[in-house]
Amino acid sequence: MTTTVDWLTSLWQRSAERLERRCAGLTDEELFWEPAPDSWNIRRDPSAPSGWSYEYEFDPPPPAPVTTIGWRLVHIAADNWIYAEHAFGPGVRTFPDLHVPSTARSVLQDWQDSRAPVSAWLAGARDEDLEEPRPSHLGEPRSAGEVITILIDEQTHHGAEIALLRDLYVRRG
Fold this sequence. Notes:
- By secondary structure, this protein is mainly alpha-helical.
- The protein has helices at 4-22, 28-32, 69-88, 104-124, 144-171; strands spanning 42-44, 52-54, 133-136, 139-143.
- Helix 1 runs antiparallel to helix 4 and helix 1 runs parallel beside helix 5 (144-171).
- The radius of gyration is 16 Å and the shape is globular.
């Protein structure tokens, strides 16, 4: 019999494999391509730990800005880092503390690295652990299962958006 943890682990891994395939051959030009005026992107920021940052608001202005491939990949990784940091780790860092990479290769590596703490937690989890309340950077505790589900959803839906943006990038001419 398959457990809920097995099911979530499978979704976590399969959505990552799909995104990894869709990002094969990603170039720096694609990473920074802005498909619409005033797109949210990765930008130089001398005050940030890595010298780079990206626009982010919990309540973006309406209508929500179009985001770049780079923004989406950095966002997925940042969510992984911060949710895992607070739910399964020391809960010290916040989004502004994160290193924001600035090349296609480094963004993809950061995303891969950001998956490790979540994968490690899933590898040792049992179904009953999913109900356990965990600290959250958003204030109120969330169950471990809710944290994992949020991260799977982010990886899946932003991964699909990245796939679409890559298709549009090729056809933009």
